[in-house]
Amino acid sequence: MKFFSTRRLVFVIIGIVVTVALLTGSVLVRNRRATPPVIQQFGNDVAGVVARVVNWPVAVTHGGYDSVAQLLDTYQENTQLRAKVDALAQEKVRAQVLENENKSLKNQLNLNETLTDYSLINATVISRAPSAWLSQLIINVGRNAGIKKNMPVVSGKGLIGRISEVDRTTSKVELLSDDSGSSNRFAIQITNKEGEAMYGIITGYNRNANRLIVGQVTSNIKLKKGDQVLTSGLGGITPKGLYVGEVDSIHNDASGLSKSIYIKPATDFGNINFVSVAIEK
Amino acid sequence: MFGFFNGYHTKLKWIFAVITFFLLFFDGALFANMAGFLTKGQYHIMPMLLVIWFVYAVLFELDLDLPIYAWTLLAGLIYDFFYFGVIGGFTVGLPIMVWVSKQLRFYLSDSIVSLCMIIILSITALQIFTYVAAFIAGLDVGNAANYVVHTFAPSLALNVIVAIILYLPFRQLFRKLKEI
Q1: B143 Cβ under 8 Å from any chain A Cβ
Q2: In this structure, is residue B95 part of a structural domain?
Q3: Which pLDDT belongs to residue A2?
Q4: Is A92 within the bounds of a domain?
Q5: Structural domain boundaries enclosing A251
Q6: Radius of gyration of chain B measured on its C-alpha atoms
Q7: Would you say residue A3 lies in a domain?
Q8: Is A146 inside a domain boundary?
Q9: Average pLDDT for residues A86-112, to the nearest whole number?
Q10: What residue ranges are annotated as transmembrane (chain B) (predicted)?
Q11: Which one of A117, A118, B130, B166 is at 20 to 30 Å from A151 when CA atoms are compared?
């Protein structure tokens, strides 16, 4: 029997056409619309409930294992932390004083809202897409909690990605490490030791080295390894002042006209159990 | 409807459905909680228990009693909706994989080595399809060699080991279910 009888060939061709249409269509919808189609949202919300139930025992087991592992180096860590807590108390008081001063100065200038005003919504990671190129996190808050597409998401020390899809009670977070090429364009600023600021956009991610890349930099401001990188709050939905990471190295582009800055991200993209979504006020 | 739950072996059909959905979400829960270990550097080692489940369902001839293609289509659709928001990779990939394992079932003997062969080839078929699908969808898949070294090979290794461990429990389970 021939493998491709006429009938089978027709089925295969129709199958290929339908598959390509599904793929490209769903990517278009995903990129253009603020929320997915109703049927998809409904499906995801129901699936979200089941995922929460399934995730619970796994998370408890993982938590238990982590606790035991951490217990082993608790003593050493405790000594270090105690020293840090003393210093932190001072910093906290100072931050409070500065915050109050900032507020009163803003009042005098009639500045009600600036780019640094944001609030955080906390969420738990209930699942993670098993994929190498779209390793999205699924979190347990959605449109009901005020989440919107493209909002920045932070975890642990710093920025980890942005909301890529919003359903009623769940959302998906596209990680900076995914570099899907479509939307991970965060506006950032890097301030050097002299207080000079350089502005740029995260243009990519180097998987080999686990570094974020700020490309096409033409500024002449001198940066050093360890300079801190924050979101700049320019151009849209991301507030100012979310910690991204620190400068790791600076490379000249082949043309010699511009530079690329490699940034060491603040957060480990592997271990993320809880996240916060930053909402601009 | 479509013979999902009615007719003979209703218990088998219900339990098959429950385990299918459990594993669908268990894959993600496992990956979320063990990502620190499973995604080191460039490596992405993916747990694919749902895939192993479907391959075993074919190998133990469950497709004679229940509509396996309809189940793969449904599970694939939910998988794509819930995890990616891009439809196609698993919706079409899972039925293709089941078709591959069905074809191979007739050629290979009952030993553990041929079992491993079927699992390896089925997972390979699925992985190749999802790679091509992601490429068509315009996602940044990186180059193929990198994918093979850092994602495909380690995932395959992990899943073959898991499949071998699960062989006896699954065989027992399917035998029991077929009796009732």
Answers
A1: no
A2: yes
A3: 61
A4: no
A5: 115-281
A6: 16
A7: no
A8: yes
A9: 86
A10: 12-31, 43-62, 68-100, 112-139, 151-170
A11: B130
> Would you call B83 and A51 a contact, using CB atoms and an 8 Å cutoff?
no
pLDDT < 70 regions, chain B = 1-3, 8, 180
What is the distance between the alpha carbons of residues B52 and B61, in angstroms, rounded to a whole number? 14
- Is B4 among the domain residues? no
Q: Quick check: is B5 in a domain?
A: no
Residue B151's Cβ-count burial label (10 Å; 0-12, 13-18, 19+) is buried
Residue B3 covered by a domain: no
Place of tokens 């033409």: A218
Q: Is the ipTM of this complex over 0.85?
A: yes
Taking contacts as CB-CB distances below 8 angstroms, the residues of chain B near A172 are 85
| Residues β-bridged to residue A246 | A228, A264
Contact A125 B32 (CB under 8 A): yes
Query: Which token pair is A264?
Result: 């060491």
Q: Are the Cβ atoms of B85 and A40 closer than 8 angstroms?
A: yes
How many residues are there in chain A?
A: 281
Give A134's pLDDT tier (boundaries 50, 70, 90). Answer: confident
Range of the domain at B30: 10-179
- The total number of structural domains in chain B stands at 1
Distance, CA of B88 to CA of B94 (rounded, Å): 10
Nearest residue in chain B measured CA to CA from A204: B140
> The domain spanning residue A252 has which CATH number?
2.40.10.350
- Fill in the DSSP letter of residue A238: P
Using DSSP's 3-state secondary structure scheme, residue B108 falls into coil
- Whether A165 sits inside 8 A of B85 (CB atoms) is yes
Torsion sign (Cα): A63, A64, A70, A74: positive
The total of structural domains in chain A comes to: 1
Distance in Å, alpha carbon of A5 to nearest chain B alpha carbon: 17
